[in-house]
Amino acid sequence: MIGGGIAGTTAALALAKIGADVEVYEAAVRTAAEGGWVTLGPSAMTALDQIGVGERIRAVGFPVVEARMVNTVTGQKDRLSRYEPGHRWSSTHVWRRDLLSVLRDRLDQVGIGCRFGLAVTASEVSADLVVGADGARSTTRRLLGNSTPLNFAGQVIRYGHHPMPVPGLPRHVLHFWTHPDGVIGYVGDDRDGSFWFSRHDADAPTGMVELAQLLRPLRATPAAAVVDMSELSDQYALHELDPSGIWNSTDTVLTGDAAHAVSPAAGRGATSSIEDALVLARSLRQADTIAAALDVYTATRRPVAEATYRPMPGHRPPRPTADDLFLDEIVRK
Questions:
Q1: Is residue 137 in some structural domain?
Q2: Domain coverage including residue 193
């Protein structure tokens, strides 16, 4: 496994569950700080249950049961449940560092070796299968002959956190306000406080949008109550990766952002990586050869990635069912 982030650790745990002998190589040291947070979809929570960490993730995170959208120009309002048919749990909001900590602790518990602080490439390791989970700027992708470049998504983003939730806004609900220059979002919890972001259109990835301009739309919402007291992230340019091109050879495969990085605007990055892991493990368990399994995996996951990358107006990208993420040897609860 090349990469020990969310995609790599989840895939390692799923492959170990079907009996594979797995070793993980991660370029960063284990104590490296991981900033930000993610909201995992119901399918991701089903998948995390399959590899034995779902309960712990739910304990360190909090549920997100609904999304509410407001167009500040037209006044149009929409609501969307964050539950999905066939999945037991709603979405779950969790600090990225806590998610990774739980996944990496699970590697230790099941005896999967992870070499932190060691950057290797697919050409430097010998294995029956090499999984490239090395992120959006994947070296494994280039070694496979996939030269698809990252694209600037046309927006920059800042994140904010405050230890108290916004008074008057429902907890465990994702609130989105669209405006002419972007989108702002908020979710809150009594224990973990307020989480918000401001995405703003930009002409170039190096173009900085002034902080006052980024925060102005927030000041017109109830989230204004915590903005000035929040801890702020740096400003980041958002990128995405067209999921076309080579995903696999006979013994090497891409997973997660290495295959299909999406902007946070899609809200599917970590969830898709976790889904990939379970589908890859299922494909390997069911196929006669590794090469055949990798072809099945790519054929299964690429259409989902394409629909997420360029969604049709009014259509949600396909979601895997619980059965799609079920590893045969695991007894369902």
A1: yes
A2: 152-238
Angle of helix 42-50 relative to helix 269-286, nearest 10 degrees? 40
Residue whose tokens read 């590794």: 290
| In a shared domain, residues 230 and 252 | no
Burial of 289 by CB count in 10 Å (0-12 exposed, 13-18 middle, 19+ buried)?
exposed
How far apart are the C-alpha atoms of 198 and 318, rounded to whole Å? Answer: 27
In a domain, 330, yes or no: no
Measured CA to CA, the distance from residue 16 to residue 7 in angstroms comes to: 14
- On whether the CB atoms of residues 57 and 100 are closer than 8 A, the answer is no
Answer yes or no: pTM beyond 0.85.
yes
Q: Render pLDDT for 96-129 as a digit per residue (tens, 0 to 9).
A: 999 999 999 999 999 999 999 999 999 999 999 9
Q: Which tokens in the block code for residue 308?
A: 């997420």
CA distance 43 to 58: 14
Q: Compute the distance between CA of residue 250 and CA of residue 63 in angstroms, rounded to an integer.
A: 40
22 lies in some domain = yes
How far, in whole angstroms, is CA 267 from its chain's centroid? 8
Query: Residue 242 has what DSSP assignment?
Result: -
Point out which residues pair with 2 in neighbouring strands: 25, 132
pLDDT at 266: 58
Low-confidence ranges of the chain (pLDDT < 50): 330-333
The verdict on 294 and 178 lying in the same domain is: no
Given this model, what pLDDT does residue 331 score? 36
Tokens standing for 294?
């990798």
Report the 10 Å Cβ neighbour count for 280. Answer: 27
Local structure of 279: helix, strand or coil: helix
How confident is the model at residue 160, as a pLDDT? 96
Q: What are the DSSP E strand ranges found in the chain?
A: 23-26, 37-40, 62-64, 66-71, 77-81, 91-95, 113-116, 130-132, 150-162, 173-179, 182-189, 193-201, 231-232, 236-241, 252-254
Count of structural domains, the chain: 2
Quote the pLDDT of residue 313.
Answer: 63
Q: Hey, what are 123's tokens? A: 């050409």
